[in-house]
Amino acid sequence: MANDLYLPIEFHNGEITNEEGCPLPYLPTLMDISPTCFIPYPDAARNQKSLKQGWGSADRSISSYSHGSLYDDGGGWNGRSNSMNSFLGLQLEDHTRGFNAQRYLAVEAMMEEDDAAAMVGDGGSAKEVPEEGSDDGMKLVHQLITCAKVVAFQDKLHASALLSELRSNALVFGTSFQRVASCFVQGLSDRLALIQPLEVGGCSEKTMAGSSTPEKEEAFRLFYETCPQIQFGQFVANASILEAFEGESSVHVLDLLGMNLGSSQGQQWRSLMHSLANRAGQQPSSLQITGVGTASECLKVKDIIDELEVYAKSLGMNFQFSMVEKSIENLHHEDINLLEGEALVVNSILQLHCVVKESRGALNSVLQKIRELSPKAVVLVEQDASHNGPFFLGRFMEALHYYSAIFDSLDAMLPKYDTRRAKMEQFYFGEEIKNIMSCEGSARVERHQRLDQWRRRMSRAGFQPAPMEMITEAKQWLEKVKPCEGYTVVEEKGCLVLGWKSKPIIAASCWKCS
């Protein structure tokens, strides 16, 4: 139920429902809040209460603040449900638009009491907070949240003053939370600069996640080599592809390329070729890989095609690599050279979230096109995070929790003054954070969704889950890679989730046509 509550909320016949039309039973009682007070800037007004509710969630994480990290590793996998419930008020306020002033003030007073209690209750006692630097750390968290609230109110004067103070405390080579705060400060600053009267959204060119720079490409390379996220996705994807190709003599992989994934995909396909050539029984008579991406994305892949062809020849494998220079949204059935009797698998690693828009139409269209190809399997690897909420403050709080865990993991893997870590944080993760924070409309492409949301989307598009029964192999792989202590792999309803301590980071799932 908690996951459903995070879906867009609508009104039907006086009841509040989620996007599936199912009523949310205990919400209609709040509908007697009368719209007697008109607020000139409804986004700002409604976000005030939203922030208060998100604040409680943040403070509970702050209570476990340790060594400069916001991340709380004691919540278990169920932490995602608690986070969604924390923002229930945010979803409701964005649809009611008005409220009774007296009741609003009363609710605010109650929330202030809850926030104070959260600092000392339910595991938030002062004994659990280390003395050294803890006050400064919690002060920085509160400053950052307060700044997000002021930016939501479009108060440029106050926000600019807060940002100036935050910049002096959010250090690129500081604690893990100081470093993640530095990225959020830049995102808030970019959002503030874009605020214009009556303007729905926008994004500066440097904040567009689709734009590539040498710094960002180097940061991605370091991320791929240092962190296990993408390597985990490729390992699980190859295992699912091999299972789908069992007994097939002519096999075809449709790879949805990404802006940065081109070079790293060479490692995935070399591994797949090796496994196909050495599988029990006869190796396939032919392997065809079709990459789909923009011209610039395809150009990067061309650098590895010759190497793959040489490797395939050494294995005695008939190999062909084809390119389709189109965006995923513009892909058509006739663009794929699918031969008769060829078994097809679609491989998507950290790509489909970029197709998600405010409406569900764009992604649904892409999934329908994929389904028309009748693949034996669709392998989906995505960030397991809720960064596609329509409202700024909800995205801010969710992203703050998610990227705090990411930066905490980097803290454990690399020394404090390692320039590799700074490059990854500022030019890869930092760019994602800025896109989530400052962009709206088509400019916002980092629209990560939770695993449960992907389950609903895939089911509606005519796919059914193909359980990944390889948790033992995944754990063995993680033990072999051994990036550092703290990474975990769990099975969740037939899917595999890589996490940092108790926080889900990356989820892999496999689907087949219904």
Overall, the morphology is globular
- State the separation between the terminal residues, measured CA to CA: 25 Å
Give me the strand/helix succession: HEEHHHHHHHHHEHEHEEHEHHHEHEEE
Counted by DSSP, the helix tally is: 17
Biggest sheet features: 9 strands, mixed
Radius of gyration: 24 Å
Can you tell me the residue ranges where pLDDT is under 50 for at least 5 consecutive residues?
A: 1-68, 72-132, 197-201
Q: Strand-residue fraction?
A: 5-15%
The total beta strand count reads 11
Helix content: 40-55%
Structural class: alpha/beta
Tell me, rounded to a whole number, the average pLDDT. Answer: 77
Q: How would you summarize what this structure contains?
A:
The protein is of the alpha/beta class. The chain contains 17 helices and eleven strands.
Describe how the helices and strands are arranged:
Layout (H helix, E strand, L loop, with lengths): L1 H4 L4 E3 L2 E3 L24 H21 L16 H8 L1 H9 L4 H20 L13 H19 L3 H14 L6 H19 L19 H13 L2 H16 L5 E7 L4 H17 L8 E8 L1 H20 L4 E7 L17 E7 L11 H12 L4 E7 L8 H22 L5 H20 L12 H10 L2 E3 L5 H11 L5 E6 L2 E6 L2 E11 L1
Parallel strand pairs: 3-4, 3-6, 4-5, 6-7
Antiparallel strand pairs: 1-2, 7-11, 8-11, 9-10, 10-11
Can you describe what's shown?
- The chain is of the alpha/beta class.
- The protein has helices at 2-5, 42-62, 79-86, 88-96, 101-120, 134-152, 156-169, 176-194, 214-226, 229-244, 261-277, 295-314, 361-372, 392-413, 419-438, 451-460, 471-481, and strands at 10-12, 15-17, 250-256, 286-293, 319-325, 343-349, 377-383, 463-465, 487-492, 495-500, 503-513.
- Strands 3, 4, 5, 6, 7, 8, 9, 10 and 11 form a nine-stranded mixed sheet that branches. A two-stranded antiparallel ribbon has the order 1-2.
- β10 and β11 form a beta hairpin.
- α2 (42-62) runs antiparallel to α6 (134-152).
- The protein is globular, with a radius of gyration of 24 Å.
